């Protein structure tokens, strides 16, 4: 096998003099950073191996909104919520297809995780106000003040490194070393100049990637997204799945993913779905509304791609424009010139390129002027991967956990079931943050590394 491809190699290939740490974490996204923070809070040494020079990943490309039930922030706003209610919302969206053990584990873990990050590490989470994302019964989206994924990542990195976690950038893990008892003994990672460095570990957490950036895997496993724009991070190259296959790990929910029906073209910017959730409509180039926007932004990606040229127009009025301007992603789109305005129906029809009489009656809900943004459907990240138990331990084909291999975040199956319509807003960061929290606690309590 090419040395630069993901590989599982015998432990004998790991140099005896390679440095050793109790826990190695592959990937310094939200999942890895949360896990590292929790490990260091417990006094466990760990290292984050990150392929980029600085942590970014899928989280930095997202809005950074984390759904959680029962947090301090919710209580401060007088909102009554519970993990059980949150779990019901997740399963309702996934039509009962989400893994029950993970739904329960993540909905129970996410509030303690956020409250811990706030109280011990000073990450102040605000509860988003003013609207509900589709499928959520109460307001439970939490964000840092800046309301961006990049800002969330900056604060998580500060927490992890401030707690004493080692962060090694420009380190692309390509090799796992395993012994005859299926125990991971260490990893090998490539440097930018091509050299290979090795590290021994007592426990390994895969918090690295999905497969959204691997065109062949997308074409095979997610045919509806075969020709979609990939708006996720390039690091989602399917390495974890290929390691899992080589190890004999079980895979699950590979048909699940998060799409988005509001990727601004040609600018390549995400437009907030809050506009659609609060009454905006999507029209195709024929001027017709083609789906129910309140069902969610993930499945909207497929609906948009089915339209002529795979294009739609987000149409809204002044009231929704004011709402949209509260979101940094929309501010960026507007600054780039993506938001077009039309004083009347005739001007809107000319903008879209359809006869005025073809415009959908759904526009009757608006008072001119109209505002419109040209969008397509995009793939953001996958929701299937290595099968794990409620402690984030990777399972083999018989459902048995590997001795010291953990996985969470984009590497593992999530809580969206096996189809695009199962994705409830925020499921990706729920799995990342709650999964990182749980995986770290598993390493602490069962890994023999305390």
UniProtKB/TrEMBL annotation:
Domain FAD-dependent oxidoreductase 2 FAD-binding: 23-417
Residue spans crossing the bilayer: none
Alphabetical UniProt keywords: FAD, Flavoprotein, Oxidoreductase
Cofactor(s) required, per the database record: FAD
Pfam families, per the entry: FAD_binding_2
GO MF term set: oxidoreductase activity
InterPro entries linked to this entry: FAD-dep_OxRdtase_2_FAD-bd, FAD-oxidoreductase_2, FAD/NAD-bd_sf, Succ_DH/fumarate_Rdtase_cat_sf
Name assigned to this protein: FAD-dependent oxidoreductase
Lineage of origin: Bacteria, Pseudomonadati, Pseudomonadota, Betaproteobacteria, Burkholderiales
């Amino acid at each position: 096998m090419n040395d630069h491809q993901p590989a599982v190699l015998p432990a004998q290939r790991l140099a005896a003099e390679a440095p050793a740490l109790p826990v190695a974490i592959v990937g310094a996204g939200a999942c890895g950073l949360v896990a590292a923070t929790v490990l260091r809070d417990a006094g466990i040494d760990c290292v984050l191996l990150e392929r980029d020079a600085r942590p970014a990943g899928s989280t930095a490309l997202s809005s950074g909104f984390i759904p959680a039930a029962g947090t301090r922030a919710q209580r401060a706003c007088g909102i009554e919520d519970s993990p059980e209610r949150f779990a019901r919302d997740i399963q309702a969206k996934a039509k009962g297809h989400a893994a029950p053990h993970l739904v329960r584990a993540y909905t129970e873990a996410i509030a303690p995780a956020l409250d811990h990050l706030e109280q011990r590490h000073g990450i102040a989470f605000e509860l988003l106000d003013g609207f509900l994302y589709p499928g959520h019964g109460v307001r439970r989206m939490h964000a840092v003040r800046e309301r961006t994924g990049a800002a969330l990542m900056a604060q998580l990195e500060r927490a992890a490194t401030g707690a004493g976690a080692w962060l090694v950038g420009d380190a692309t893990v390509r090799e796992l070393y395993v012994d005859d008892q299926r125990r991971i003994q260490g990893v090998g990672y490539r440097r930018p100049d091509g050299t290979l460095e090795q590290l021994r570990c007592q426990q390994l957490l895969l918090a690295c990637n999905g497969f959204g950036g691997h065109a062949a895997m997308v074409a095979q496993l997610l045919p509806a997204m075969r020709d979609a724009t990939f708006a996720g991070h390039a690091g989602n190259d399917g390495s974890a799945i290929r390691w899992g296959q080589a190890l004999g790990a079980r895979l699950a929910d590979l048909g699940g993913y998060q799409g988005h029906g509001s990727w601004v073209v040609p600018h390549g910017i995400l437009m907030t779905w809050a506009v659609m959730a609060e009454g905006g409509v999507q029209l195709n180039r024929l001027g017709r509304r083609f789906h129910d926007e309140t069902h969610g932004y993930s499945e909207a990606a497929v609906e948009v791609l089915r339209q002529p040229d795979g294009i739609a127009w987000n149409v809204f009025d002044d009231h929704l424009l004011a709402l949209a301007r509260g979101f940094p992603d929309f501010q960026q789109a507007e600054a780039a010139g993506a938001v077009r305005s039309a004083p009347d129906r005739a001007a809107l029809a000319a903008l879209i390129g359809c006869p005025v009489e073809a415009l959908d009656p759904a526009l009757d809900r608006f008072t001119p002027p109209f505002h419109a943004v040209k969008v397509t459907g995009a793939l953001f990240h996958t929701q299937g991967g290595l099968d794990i138990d409620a402690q984030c331990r990777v399972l083999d084909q018989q459902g048995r956990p590997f001795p010291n291999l953990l996985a969470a975040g984009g590497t593992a199956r999530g809580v969206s079931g096996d189809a695009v319509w199962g994705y409830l807003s925020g499921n990706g960061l729920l799995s990342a943050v709650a999964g990182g929290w749980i995986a770290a606690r598993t390493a602490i309590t069962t890994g023999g590394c305390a």
